[in-house]
Write a structure and sequence with these properties.
heterodimer, A: mainly alpha, MetI-like fold, 13 helices, 0% strand, B: 228 residues, alpha/beta, D-Maltodextrin-Binding Protein, domain 2, 5-stranded mixed β-sheet, 10 strands
């Protein structure tokens, strides 16, 4: 990079850009009840939401890994008609307003949804259950994992796979012992991004899974509800989410904090 | 010179959605230079927004508690006026397939029940009614406002929800209402007030006056509200 002096206008607008993002965080921190934050987080409503959020976001990440890594492999390695269309469809939840995702889930897997009666027949109920919250989180978060893993697969050196194959390794062994270790950083990055998105999920969850402490009331929902009656609890929970977001940035610093 | 159209921003509890949309049109007939922007939500969310500086001209709450929050913050221009009351009903699927006849049926294990969150007026009133009836019912979800409860029932995701009679009346094609007897009823009192510092305070006061006038009351009664 060749350093340059910014034009005055750019410096001015850039400073406003920084302030625009930083000031709300300052506002949140200025209201933070530091002395009582720990006890606020220990209240039953906060502790329940914390526990549930970790369960839901980790389950969503696990589900996204199981489905998303093979999907990314197919996108990266298989030529088939309509691949770009299918990839566009599976990327859509990343851009779609989450509430729309929730409505769509409801009309697909809800009790009166397209597949609701079939699910009901085999005893599966998703709305208002923790499984439903996991599904909503996976729906919005999986594209982050798929795109990241696909990029990893496309940029890896396939000659290692070829070498293993010529030495007699089967496809499954090659995938497990050669491909997976090579794309491990991408899988890790994808999983962290996916987890972060799942942790912050609000719109699809409240629309599809509802809001019940201990069952579907994840951290963002608890923040929203608590803001009206127990703002100090809402702020304490917000600080937890802010801290996690910062931690994720540090973990992913090679991807985000260094531009080049 | 054509007179300028003034915009009045009204924050109102979600149960007032139909009533205020209609009353706004009625008021606009006599004052052609006014346009309304409505912000409907749970009264507790709206009170939180106003006490944090949201630019409302008028606030109408579904309970006195949330109006009191705004009074305590010294943010009202004049005292709140009672303009309507409401009662509760059980909203069920059209035709009442689960044969829900009373609050006691909401505790049945085959009934999927949705209530409003206990932080919002409709949720608090619902718990009061259940307590009066001596019923311990477990909802599967605590929705953010009463209209979200109505939606979960009309979408068929829930078998029953406790809402206002006016909500049932606004959705007669999508839900059926089950009456709650007098001794288990809870009366919701709706206060309205002009927010202090409103640049449209004259017009805002006239809208409040219109709601308590015979014309405004006629609209509210038609939609199932009772007089204050």
């Amino acid at each position: 990079m060749r350093p340059e002096r910014p034009p005055l206008l750019f410096a001015f607008l850039a400073a406003i850009g920084v302030a625009f993002v930083v000031l709300p965080l300052v506002g949140l921190l200025s209201r933070a009840p530091w002395e009582t934050a720990l006890s606020d987080l220990g209240t039953p409503e906060a502790a329940t939401a914390l526990r549930l959020s970790f369960v839901v976001s980790l389950a969503a990440t696990a589900l996204a890994l199981v489905l998303g890594v093979p999907l990314a492999w197919v996108y990266a390695r298989v030529q088939f008609r309509g691949r770009d269309v299918v990839r566009a469809l599976t990327t859509l939840p990343m851009i779609l307003p989450p509430v729309v995702g929730g409505v769509a889930l409801l009309f697909a897997f809800g009790r009166r949804g397209l597949f609701g009666p079939a699910l009901d027949a085999i005893g599966i109920h998703l709305p208002f259950t923790t499984a439903g919250a996991v599904l909503a989180a996976t729906f919005v978060a999986m594209p982050f994992l798929v795109l990241t893993v696909e990029a990893g697969l496309r940029s890896m050196d396939r000659r290692y796979e070829d070498a293993a194959r010529t030495l007699g390794a089967g496809r499954w062994l090659v995938f497990r012992r050669v491909t997976l270790p090579l794309i491990a950083p991408s899988v890790f990055a994808g999983a962290v991004l996916c987890w972060a998105r799942a942790l912050g999920e609000f719109g699809a969850t409240i629309t599809f899974a509802g809001n019940l402490p201990g069952t579907t009331q994840t951290l963002p929902l608890a923040v929203y509800i608590a803001l009206e009656t127990r703002p100090e609890v809402a702020i304490a929970l917000s600080l937890v989410l802010l801290g996690l977001a910062l931690a994720i940035l540090v973990v992913m610093r090679d991807r985000y904090l260094r531009a080049f | 010179m054509t007179p300028e159209v003034q915009n009045v921003t009204v924050f109102a509890g979600s149960s007032l959605t139909d009533a205020f949309t209609r009353a706004g049109n009625g008021f606009a007939k006599t004052n052609t230079r006014v346009r309304f922007t409505f912000n409907f939500g749970s009264s507790s969310t709206l009170a939180t927004q106003i006490t944090n500086g949201a630019p409302a001209d008028v606030f109408a709450s579904a309970d006195e508690g949330n109006m009191q929050k705004v009074v305590d913050a010294n943010l009202l221009d004049g005292a709140p006026a009672a303009f309507a009351t409401n009662r509760l009903a059980i909203a069920v699927a059209p035709g009442n397939p689960k044969k829900i006849a009373a609050l006691a049926d909401l505790a049945r294990s085959d009934v999927v029940l949705v209530l409003a969150a206990p932080t919002v007026p409709a949720g608090k009133y619902a718990l009061d009614a259940l307590r009066k009836a001596g019923v311990i019912a477990k909802p599967v979800s605590q929705e953010v406002d009463v209209r979200a409860v109505l939606n979960k029932v009309s979408l068929g995701e829930a078998d029953a929800g406790i809402v206002y009679v006016t909500d049932v009346k606004s959705a007669t094609d999508r839900v059926t209402g089950v009456d709650i007897p007098e001794q288990q009823q809870v009366v919701a009192r709706y206060p309205i007030a002009v927010v202090k510092g409103s640049p449209k305070s004259a017009l805002a006061h006239r809208f409040v006056d219109y709601l308590v006038s015979p014309d405004g009351q006629k609209i509210l009664v038609e939609l199932g509200f009772s007089k204050p």
